Structures are given as C-alpha cells and as structure tokens.
Amino acid sequence: METTTLTPQTFRGIVVKTAMKDTATVAVSRYVKHPKYKKYQTRTKKFLVHDPESTAKVGDQVTIVGCRPISKLKRFQLASIDVAAEVVE
C-alpha cells in the first residue's frame, strides 16, 4: 500500500485589495486554451487570503497556500511576498 502525502494548493498572484482587516484579495491569472476555438486566453480569479499581520500591499506579487476554512469565503493563507510593489509618490 502506497503512502501519499497531500500537498495544499499553491498559487502566485497579485494583491488587488487590502481594505478588510486581516484579509487581502489576490487575483490569480492562468493561461488556458479555449475548448472549442483552440485560442489561448487569460482567465483571472480572485481569492480572499488570510493575512494576519496585514503585511501585503496593493500591487505585491504573493504566493498563497490552501488551508482549512477560516471564514465563509477565506480558504487560503498568505505564504510569502515575492515581489513588493513599487512606491510611487
């Protein structure tokens, strides 16, 4: 009998909103082929991410990891901030 270890879902995306306490909204884009027309297109989905220290800022590129349900819509945690957004004055 084989033992398999389940790895949680991991995505990379861009923070688009940080208005809520301990929560960030991350947009994850993927490049998919249309089943009928065979043309490639970009699909974007937004996820609510748990960010307990509120370290993520709008425009940051982040890595998110699936976790247990934290609230009705939050199913991901912030794993790391890969590229910080540039500050424009």
Please describe the topology of this protein:
Layout: E1 10-17, E2 23-33, E3 40-50, E4 61-66, E5 74-83
Parallel strand pairs: 3-5
Antiparallel strand pairs: 1-2, 1-4, 2-3, 4-5
Task: Give structural notes.
It is a single chain. The chain is mainly β. It has one domain (10-83): OB fold (Dihydrolipoamide Acetyltransferase, E2P) (Beta Barrel), CATH 2.40.50. It has no helices and five strands. Strands 1-2-3-5-4 form a five-stranded mixed barrel. The protein is globular and about 45 Å long.
| Continuous helix count | 0
The CATH superfamily bears the name: Nucleic acid-binding proteins
CATH top level is: Mainly Beta
SSE sequence, one letter per element = EEEEE
Which percent range describes the beta-strand content? Answer: over 45%
Main sheet: strands, sense, barrel: 5 strands, mixed, barrel
Overall SS class:
mainly beta
Unreliable runs, pLDDT <50, ≥5 residues?
Answer: none
On the 0-100 scale, what is the average pLDDT?
A: 91
Number of strands: 5
CATH topology: OB fold (Dihydrolipoamide Acetyltransferase, E2P)
Span between termini: 60 Å
User: Radius of gyration, Cα only, in angstroms?
Assistant: 15 Å
Q: Order of strands across the widest beta sheet?
A: 1-2-3-5-4
Helix content: under 10%
- 3D shape: globular
Number of domains: 1
CATH architecture, by name, is Beta Barrel
